[in-house]
Amino acid sequence: MLIKRLSSQAGFAAGLALLLFFVLFPFMQMLSTSLKPADELFTVPPLWVPKHVSMANFMAAFQHKQFVRYFMNSLAVSAITCALVIIVSVLAAYGFTRLEFPGRKFFLNVILVSQMFCISAIVVPLYKIVGSLGLLNSYAGLILAYMAFTVPVAIWLLRSFLLNIPPDLEESAMMEGASKLAAFFKVVVPLLRPGIGATAAYVFLMTWQEFLFALIFMTKPEMRTLPIGIMDFKGQYETNWGTMMAASIAISIPVFVLFLFIQRQLISGLTEGATKG
Amino acid sequence: MKTRSSLLGYTLIGPAIILLLVMLFIPLLYSLQLSLQDTDLSHGAPKWIGLSGYRESWLGGELWNVSKHSIVWTGCVAGFQVLIGLLAAMMLNRKFPLRWLVRALILLPWVLPGVVAALTWRLVYDSQFGFMNSLIAKLGFGQHATDWLGTPGLAMFAVILAAVWKGFPFPMLMLLAALQSVPQEQYEAAKIDGADTWRKFVYITLPSISGVLKTVVLLVSIWTFNYFEMIYVLTGGGPIRSTHIAPTYIYELSFRNFNFGEASRVAIVSFVFILAISFVLIRQMNKTEKY
């Protein structure tokens, strides 16, 4: 019995170790490459642990002529998208959970179907529509597209948070003479704050790393966002992997930090959204 | 209690609905219209050709190839993501020291920006500087200079592995939450009845998480089908077009060859395909759960 338990423990530990190795393997290469000095970068076979640690790659990444510009573009697009999506989605989620009107079920299904939309099916027409509005190479065009992809999920998430807030609270506020909207802003919004935070984080994570639309909408170098800009380090014939990996780490850190702060609300929002349907 | 107020209701959901209408549904109709035109630049000005464009795309063979790759890609990536996600969730459902740290580490690939993940895997697969070949050498299988992304048979395997790595934490998170809500008494009752681990899994765990499992399969399949940057960065659809999936092919047709009509035909076929998958899976969900 003891032997059986021990061997099952050992099997469990081995499985866990294997999983962790699978997860961390590419990160090992990323970190190791970014910290290598120039003379160790191109040894064959590659060294897993650099002999000398150097920050030169990080310096080079930040000195790249457009890197700061890309960073600001990404930040502007993501932040504005976040704010607009939250406004539009909070209003809609409130309408869907607290009001009754003809067609409510139908429009809720429209939102559900939009979540499952085949994005690649509308790349071409969206490009043409945004182009004919003169919004290529502008923040506005990209933000509109990002809003369309994130609003359905955002409404769905916020709806699941709103369903957890008992309507009695608003009703008692309204009994005391507050209007419906006043009750909403004074009573519901403060309680909804964790949900709003989680949804905003989700939207930010999605837009910060979006690639396809950033690639086709932003053709001018100075309008590129980080995910496209980072391809600059991939030269036509030879890639400077050291700088590229350093830049990769630099653009991942804001996402990691954000995720660290928000993970509990985000995870509970996502899982409740999925389990409640 | 819900208040009846049509005007307020429409005002509140209006912006969202208009946004989706303009940015999703109208483009879809526009795509449909484009797909009925011949826009090949070598044929001169675009002209209306009706459905015959679809027939020629099928006969041309490239659409069939891309569909095959898309199905293999979506099936393998989504399948392994859910499988590994389920195994990982079951491991993390047990109590062990430093569990919070392990969970945080496992979530890293999912949080990592997609293009960063793709670039990192590109380096991992590099024939000279990549850790993949060096890992194989360290494990004692000899020093090779395999070009993982440049060999037609291997490239598909390589991109699938990278995509599984990137996405499996999401099913893991969802399934972990589902596992934690399975009532413990059921396991204790089964233990008294002498059920072994496998039976407990099949008769208790699986039925209790099946709802979440199906939702996860649906979401992950759709995301994988549309997952563009991994293949774009790793192989660009090559070598010899052996890893072209629908999104990369649409991109190449429209923004490299400027053949928007053909791209729209591929787009419409993809749309119908996704719709069919969703339809089947949603029906499955409704069949098992009556609530």
TrEMBL record, chain A:
Keyword set, alphabetical order: Cell membrane, Membrane, Transmembrane, Transmembrane helix, Transport
Compartments in which it is found: Cell membrane
Membrane topology (UniProt): Multi-pass membrane protein
Primary localisation category: membrane
Entry keyword Transcription: no
Record CDD domains: TM_PBP2
InterPro entries for this protein: BP-dep_ABC_trans_perm (IPR050901), MetI-like (IPR000515), MetI-like_sf (IPR035906)
Pfam families attached to this UniProt entry: BPD_transp_1
Transmembrane segments: 75-94, 106-127, 139-162, 241-262
Domain ABC transmembrane type-1: 71-262
Family according to the record: Belongs to the binding-protein-dependent transport system permease family.
PANTHER family, sorted: INNER MEMBRANE ABC TRANSPORTER PERMEASE PROTEIN YCJP (PTHR32243:SF18), MALTOSE TRANSPORT SYSTEM PERMEASE-RELATED (PTHR32243)
Protein name: ABC transmembrane type-1 domain-containing protein
Organism: Gordoniibacillus kamchatkensis
